[in-house]
Q: What sequence folds into this?
């Protein structure tokens, strides 16, 4: 099914994802009309063109509000909706038309988070219905439904190299490590010294065991999931953190955004976290975050209807592993 470009972009910008293959930008937006949320999905050839509808290459209406989205190939995206649906969309006609190729509603409440596996064959979804589902992107069907969490699943994040491994965190306070090859796939990860509810989690690139976790009062920890003690802990935000993302080019550098409207970039060394960038120009919740691969820039989007590109100039003074020059280990 093909959908025509909407005349305008919805007010609340929720999702922004850079396409590593060709540099384009995926943008997801939502708005409330009466008692119902609707949404739209957009593609821009260049990050600095968003969110100008006149400069968009493609756009389409959605039947519900969008909550998350991710590329799983050069021209295919998977999105989660507040209706509980998972949808796949393909960009055709030289990236000028969105074509919906799959839709399924198997969650009983909104999808909060999705994550594509390392081999790009499956996607994991976490929902307000307390469930996690694993979907087969090739055969377009759900493979597993897991009910280990006791409350809303805030975030799921697939391992960067192991396609059967992912993490989840929930309103029940738990962080779970999953391995779908095992008969009992879930095991609990210690979250100390976090005392509040974990809201988002992400794996560090080029690392098998290291992750960053943030919570609903602005704290972030960096830890080896095999160990009880965290390697580092710090407070970057005054309110709930919505997304975390390590730089693909400087893997010891992590960006965070949240409900305090701030964008913060932190460099991690062997014994401390160093804030190297902070932007306070967004006027509403910052929902989306994506690094531009091959550069020191990242893009954010917010409920204030703006998309901003941030140049992290301090990274030019770092080596490839994110440490200041001369501190390599």
A:
């Amino acid at each position: 099914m093909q959908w025509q470009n909407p005349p305008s972009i919805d007010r609340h910008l929720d999702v922004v994802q850079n396409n590593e293959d060709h540099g384009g930008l995926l943008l997801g937006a939502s708005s409330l009309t009466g008692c119902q949320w609707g949404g739209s999905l957009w593609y821009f050839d260049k990050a600095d063109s968003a969110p100008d509808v006149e400069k968009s290459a493609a756009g389409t209406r959605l039947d519900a509000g969008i909550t998350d989205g991710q590329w799983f190939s050069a021209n295919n995206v998977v999105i989660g909706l507040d209706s509980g649906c998972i949808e796949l969309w393909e960009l055709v006609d030289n990236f000028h038309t969105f074509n919906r190729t799959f839709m399924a509603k198997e969650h009983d409440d909104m999808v909060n988070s999705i994550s594509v596996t390392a081999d790009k064959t499956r996607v994991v979804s976490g929902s307000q219905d307390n469930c996690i589902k694993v979907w087969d992107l090739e055969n377009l069907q759900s493979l597993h439904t897991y009910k280990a969490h006791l409350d809303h699943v805030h975030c799921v994040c697939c391992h960067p190299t192991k396609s059967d491994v992912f993490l989840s965190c929930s309103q029940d306070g738990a962080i779970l490590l999953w391995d779908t090859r095992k008969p009992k796939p879930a095991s609990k990860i210690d979250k100390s010294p976090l005392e509040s509810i974990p809201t988002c989690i992400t794996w560090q690139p080029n690392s098998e065991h290291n992750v960053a976790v943030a919570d609903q009062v602005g704290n972030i920890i960096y830890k080896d999931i095999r160990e009880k003690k965290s390697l580092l802990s710090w407070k970057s935000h005054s309110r709930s953190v919505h997304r975390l993302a390590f730089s693909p080019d400087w893997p010891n550098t992590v960006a965070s955004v949240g409900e305090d409207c701030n964008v913060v970039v932190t460099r991690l060394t062997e014994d401390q976290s160093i804030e190297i960038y902070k932007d306070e120009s967004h006027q509403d919740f910052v929902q989306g975050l994506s690094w531009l691969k091959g550069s020191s820039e990242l893009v954010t989007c917010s409920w204030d209807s703006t998309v901003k590109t941030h140049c992290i100039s301090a990274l030019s003074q770092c080596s490839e592993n994110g440490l200041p020059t001369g501190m390599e280990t």
Notes: The radius of gyration is 19 Å. The chain has a mean pLDDT of 92. DSSP finds no helices and 27 strands in the chain. The first strand starts at residue 12 and ends at 18.
